[in-house]
Amino acid sequence: xxxxxxxxxxxxxxxxxxxxxxxxxxxxxxxxxxxxxxxxxxxxxxxxxxxxxxxxxxxxxxxxxxxxxxxxxxxxxxxxxxxxxxxxxxxxxxxxxxxxxxxxxxxxxxxxxxxxxxxxxxxxxxxxxxxxxxxxxxxxxxxxxxxxxxxxxxxxxxxxxxxxxxxxxxxxxxxxxxxxxxxxxxxxxxxxxxxxxxxxxxxxxxxxxxxxxxxxxxxxxxxxxxxxxxxxxxxxxxxxxxxxxxxxxxxxxxxxxxxxxxxxxxxxxxxxxxxxxxxxxxxxxxxxxxxxxxxxxxxxxxxxxxxxxxxxxxxxxxxxxxxxxxxxxxxxxxxxxxxxxxxxxxxxxxxxxxxxxxxxxxxxxxxxxxxxxxxxxxxxxxxxxxxxxxxxxxxxxxxxxxxxxxxxxxxxxxxxxxxxxxxxxxxxxxxxxxxxxxxxxxxxxxxxxxxxxxxxxxxxxxxxxxxxxxxxxxxxxxxxxxxxxxxxxxxxxxxxxxxxxxxxxxxxxxxxxxxx
Length: 516
Known about the structure:
By secondary structure, the chain is α/β, with parallel strands linked by helices. It has 15 helices and 17 strands. Helix 11 runs parallel beside helix 12 (357-370). It is globular, with a radius of gyration of 23 Å.
């Protein structure tokens, strides 16, 4: 499923079309008769599951018992990789030594069983130990507390804190950090036959002063870029709406950049994100923009579905079914997720570890009845409350088996296939990936770009460059577009042309005069 590609930006005024791949081998007639439903586990890398080949064999067998068709396997925990061939350095965890490659082993065994493998990557969690990582190339060592200026990627809280306990995070407003994450994710899809990538912690951190405010985003680079964008000279408060919108846009820009980078490598790979569902749903808070995911951690996953820069939201709908208030939360978020689907896929992800078997079966029933595109349990390691409370591997295995039997005897009895991404398998639109550079070669940060279709029905699309001068636009009607840089609301003279094809990414570079 992999396809190498050049990610070099085309020369001024030029473009490159990356053709959609032919699909893999056709689905068998037997599989075609099965209903579509994503079904699987999140497999975290803090517990047993992928540390050696024997664990992987047990994992795949357990997934087959569940009738699972997807395993979302934690590959990137803290800017490390449970793999041997990626930009992230190999993990320090006590996995079997190389040449054992955890990701490669899971792919080999799961694919042989007809199960998809999605690489689960924590996007912004840098490190969480008092002992630094061994690799000098690890971002914590190269761009953490010893680094300065733009090379210091750490997120900072309004009170100056950069580490909470042993937890540190990268700032999604730092262009160098963003590009590193994008390239690291792309390196996994380039070098491994994964079926997709699942982004976790694609947001600003927790540890805030309130439930509806975020206190992070105060790194030197972040404040300087915000000031350059707004012309403000003050330090914005965490509650400042303009600053909150700006920070939210930084996360959305990272998602957009990963989506198109993955598409260039392999258009058949799925991008899913772990959607936050803190507290009650939009029904209680008067709509999406009143919820905690949007206000508390700056994660606009509804906007990502609307724009089409994610294929699937795997919602972390972690609620205790046996607590009435949390059962209401689960129901409110379930209703919102299905309503917000926007032509993509939404998967409900209950917290198995917070519930007993009967409660998890009930949440699975609610998931199917609500019309979700699938169900995925967190987590494989701890499938019930009793499993979470026990340190005995035999207890954990027995609890997982009991849950599997109950689900298969009831709501998950059918054999199912992963829902088809028709927007990828039969695309009718295309995408643009571009850069804007100044006369001296520096990237144009936070420049407005307008794409006008010039050879057919009028279509006008707005985009915005990031700190590397990059911009992206998705789901454009095929045709020829003029790409113009806009300043102060007026269309400038800097422009280039690009041709968009269905199921392809067109690349374009624009050289602009110095922007104000």
